[in-house]
Amino acid sequence: MARHTPTLFDFESEPTMPELMYREALNQALAEEMERDANVFLIGEEVGRYNGAFKVSQGLLDRFGSARIIDAPISELGFGGMSVGAAMVGLRPVVEMMTWNFAILAMDQIVNNAAKLRHMSGGQLRCPIVFRGPGGAGGRLSSQHSQALEANYAHFPGLKVIAPATPADAKGMLKAAIRDENPVIMFEGERLYALKGEVPEGEHVVPLGKADVKREGTDVTIITWSRMYYFCMQAAEELAKEGINVEVLDLRTLRPLDEEAILASVRKTNRAVIVEEGWALAGVGASVVDIIQSKAFDDLDAPVERVTGLDVNMSYAANLENATQPDAPKIIAAVKKVLYREGA
Predict the structure, then answer these.
(1) Active-site residue among 24, 32, 96, 145?
(2) Nearest-angstrom CA–CA distance, 211 and 207
(3) How far is residue 342's CA from residue 344's CA, in Å, rounded to a whole number?
(4) N or C: which end of the chain has fewer CB within 10 A?
(5) What is the pLDDT of residues 25-63, one digit of tens each?
(6) Is the whole model's pTM more than 0.70, yes or no?
(7) How far is it, in rounded angstroms, from Cα 276 to Cα 135?
């Protein structure tokens, strides 16, 4: 059957979802959850009167007041620890880290307290808290402000780690994270905030721990998350012009990993490429490769390839920053390698 080519009239007659920027989708999720549950509050540096460093909290102070939109001092360890205590006594804090680079200062509170309270109290204490903020390359912000640190947090039992790529997933996963009874770490690609996409209105909740096939394919699986998803989709479109049919699996959640989705896709295509912004050593992608090669080895027609950030600190210069990160040409080269079409 011939594929129908959409016309202007189709677009005029078919209802479409509203388009929101990534930051607007997060704002909508926060507002909806604060309306739904009076125990939810937002705390962080400049989240109130300044409306957030990336304007995620735009308008929330006027709507909910200073008791629930709290401007914190420049002390991630301090307001991070205070929020862990608030979660222990029944509140549901959303802690905005201005960037995950700054959250390194609060690692003790996150991994030694939030992640372990439920276990060490024998289930008597819980910690329903969300730590969220931007990560990855910031666009000429140099090495101290441009790190993809997902692997650091995915390493610790007791934490859930999420990294949505699209505005729709950002809204749905933040809502799910706020409702979760466990501490959730949410990475938001720093260069995604102005990106637009369709976002369902109202009650849109994306379950944590579930990957999503964003593009169906038969020849090779590309597995990725967060901002790298867009480079993967670009690569897939370019490869399609050469007759290579790529499946793109967006992990969305990095702990727990959706092993079922990973294995199902690889068993379908028999080849895999993992793409992550972070460094190769001890990266999340290394764990994905371990899952594939230990549980689907006989299904592979080629070794799994990884495309990662270069093993260097990020440069300030824009051209060097871009050279440090994965991009579509690097992903295309990896796909052709697992297809034994190098140099094609």
Answers:
(1) 145
(2) 9
(3) 5
(4) N
(5) 999 999 999 999 999 999 999 999 999 999 999 999 999
(6) yes
(7) 13
Nearest to 95 by CA among 120, 72, 62, 65: 72
| Residue 15: per-residue pLDDT | 54
Surface-to-core class of residue 200, CB atoms within 10 Å of its CB (0-12 exposed, 13-18 middle, 19+ buried): middle
Reading the block at residue 118, the tokens are: 């439920």
Closest CA to 84 of 97, 75, 95, 74: 95
How many other CB atoms are there within 10 angstroms of residue 48's CB atom?
Answer: 22
The pLDDT tens digits of the residues spanning 290-327 come to: 999 999 999 999 999 999 999 999 989 999 999 999 99
Distance of alpha carbon 301 from alpha carbon 200, whole angstroms:
39
Residues 6+ apart with CB under 8 A from 95: 43, 44, 79, 80, 83, 129, 130, 131, 132
What tokens does 12 get?
Answer: 């005029």
At 60-91, the pLDDT tens digits run 999 999 999 999 999 999 999 999 999 999 99
Query: Residues for the chain: how many in total?
Result: 344
Query: Stretch 101-110: mean pLDDT, rounded?
Result: 96
Question: One of 45, 76, 96, 190 is an active-site residue; which one?
Answer: 76
What type of residue is 112?
N
DSSP string, 85-151: HHHHTT-EEEEE-S-HHHHGGGHIIIIIIITTHHHHTTTS-----EEEEEES--SS--GGG----HH
Quick check: is 204 catalytic?
no
CA distance 324 to 313: 9
The dihedral of CA 56, 61, 64, 65: what is its sign? positive
76 catalytic per annotation: yes
CA atoms within 13 A on the CB side of 207: 7
